[in-house]
Amino acid sequence: MTFRSRLLPMPKDGGFRMDGYYIWCGSVVKAEDGHYHMFASRWPVETGFPDGYRTHSEIVRAIAEKPEGPYTFVEVVLRGRGGGHWDAQMVHNPAIVRHGNQYILYYLGARSPATETRAIGYAYSRSIEGPWVRTSDSLTLMPDSNNPAPWIGPDGRVLLAFRHGPYMRIGMAEAEAFNGAYRVVQEDLVPGKKLEDPFLFSRGGRFEMILEDNGGSVSGYERYGVHLVSDDGLTGWRPHESVIAYDHSLVREDGVITLADRRERPQLLFDEYGGATHLFTGVRVGEETWNAVQPLLVD
């Protein structure tokens, strides 16, 4: 069964929205309280889309009783912390991972509004409610690193896919543990392709990624979601035999179909058996944005 064929209609009132804010980058984890917690980016609508995120983005937490939502805002988790830190100006692109008794929240930050200052780091906590301990320095990756996509194996080993540079290349770093030293092992996983927003996962003994095909050079359609696979996660990344993961059509349970102007930042939620159950994407229709949730048939 292909990824695209597993997509089910979206609930009418699912996902996460906030009046007065652009909402993007929804990453969800089931916590020790049995609820579903979404870590998302938000920035005020008066600052504009998308450029307002460069100066005003902050990471918030919202909660729901079921994966589809609707999600309710709980708190601001991280803001730009000033003081000359690597994430002084803003924080964006949250990716939450639960490993053992720790929650690790990867994100990008910037020292100033300039694009070239973007970098990736993380915060960690033993509780979904914090307090969150931030790294004092960003990870040493490539210039202008963003879009962090972590995978943490049973032994704690980390693979971290990310986008970097002006040409939208996907790189890969690895570390022995989330709080260990990260080293870049691949600078361009899919040579010559303009890609962003990776989500990295593993199943059935191989690695997979869902990404945004920014230039349309993999799927033939600009900004569609694409599905790539690799045997070891480091080399040989290639299109899945059914490469298109999703398009821009937002199909609801009540039969309403809306064509999104933008649909990005794919993230998956998995059940206790390792099956992907829900796809989360940031969507824009006109001037409205929200984190949409689309259930999946579990294969």
From TrEMBL:
One of its GO terms (molecular function) is hydrolase activity. This is Glycoside hydrolase family protein. Keywords: Hydrolase.
